[in-house]
């Protein structure tokens, strides 16, 4: 089931409201000029610092503060380097999967979680028909 969650992390969220995130990587997080990992390096935000994120696209976030640029959510080893400061809340998911739901919702955001729940419910309906 976790693979299904991860499958939807590549979904782009539209530009919109900014969210508070926090840098959790031990070496901080690198910020680049563009979404591409090959773009110009702008600097490193230290671990523990709060950042403001405007957009999530796949494994990348558009940071608007304290420096403007793109950062990775996970490093090459799959370790989370930045995460939402406050996990999003979804009552239905919370009721269904409590701890797992909170963790996944924090990573996916509301749009990804709604997509997952839709797929999950369709899967359950298919199982009932068999």
Distance between the termini: 20 Å
Class computed from helices, strands and strand pairing: alpha+beta
Low-confidence stretches: 1-15
**Residue-averaged pLDDT, rounded?**
76
Rg: 16 Å
**Separate helix tally:** 2
- Count the beta strands: 7
Main β-sheet, in a few words? 5 strands, antiparallel
Write the H/E string, N to C. Answer: HEEEEEEEH
Strand percentage lies at: 25-35%
Percent of residues in helices: 25-40%
Indicate the overall shape.
elongated
| Strand order within the widest beta sheet | 6-5-4-1-7
Question: Could you describe the 3D structure shown?
Answer:
By secondary structure, the chain is an alpha+beta fold. It has helices spanning 2-7, 91-129, and strands spanning 19-23, 29-32, 41-45, 50-57, 60-65, 69-72, 82-84. β4 (50-57) and β5 form a beta hairpin. The radius of gyration is 16 Å and the shape is elongated. The two termini are 20 Å apart.
Which key terms come to mind for this protein?
alpha+beta, disordered N terminus, 130 residues, 7 strands, single chain, 35% helix, five-stranded antiparallel beta sheet, two-stranded antiparallel sheet
């Amino acid at each position: 089931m976790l693979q299904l969650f991860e499958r939807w992390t590549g979904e782009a969220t539209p530009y919109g409201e900014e969210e508070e995130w926090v840098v959790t990587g031990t070496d901080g997080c690198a910020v680049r000029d563009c979404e591409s990992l090959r773009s110009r390096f702008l600097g490193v935000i230290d671990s523990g610092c709060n950042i403001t994120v405007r957009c999530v696209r796949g494994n990348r976030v558009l940071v608007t503060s304290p420096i403007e640029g793109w950062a990775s959510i996970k490093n090459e080893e799959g370790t989370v380097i930045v995460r939402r400061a406050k996990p999003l809340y979804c009552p239905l998911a919370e009721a269904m999967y409590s701890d797992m739901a909170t963790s996944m919702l924090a990573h996916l955001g509301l749009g990804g979680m709604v997509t997952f729940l839709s797929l999950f419910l369709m899967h359950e309906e298919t199982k009932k028909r068999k």
